[in-house]
Design goal:
The protein is 8% helix and 41% strand. The chain has one helix and twelve strands; from the N terminus they run ββββββββββαββ. The protein has one helix at 148-161; strands at residues 12-13, 17-28, 39-46, 53-54, 58-60, 73-82, 89-95, 102-111, 116-126, 132-135, 164-165, 174-175. The longest helix has 14 residues, at 148-161.
Amino acid sequence: MGCASSSTTPTFDHTDGIKTSYSIIVKTGDHKGLSTNANIYAKLINNYKDKDRQSDEIHLDCTWKNDFDAGSTDIFPVKDLKHFGHINELELWRSGLAADSWYFEWIKVKDNDTNMTYAFPINRWMSLGFKMMFQQNDCQLPQFAKFSDQRRIELAEKRKTYAFVQQVAGLPCQVRI
């Protein structure tokens, strides 16, 4: 179930303003082979009215638990993060082995002080070395997506992975190995 989450009272820092705590909740797909042992990183982003405020890099990891197992829901507490308002975008990336693929269904970010929850439905594979951006409640057709370059790269990878070739004339095509 991930790290235990705890709510803290916001502290006031005279230089940065109010700080808060968040819980980042990650749901990994529930089929065999969807888990990962890679390091997963996130940034929370508020770009409302061109203010483009974002958090520092957040490493999603519990040192005493195997995170991101197939079918698991992991909770990662994030404390003393500068409160920057409504979270409307999320940036994710991973490090590790290229063969260690990861499929995740959704991520929710809960502001523990205001009890606001920001949902990011994802349902995608996470590629190595590629930062992925997601919008809050992102349920739109790919042609209308805000991050169209990201989607174009994902589709090019799929086309390369699942390219067809006809090995013998007159027989059906097969996926190239």
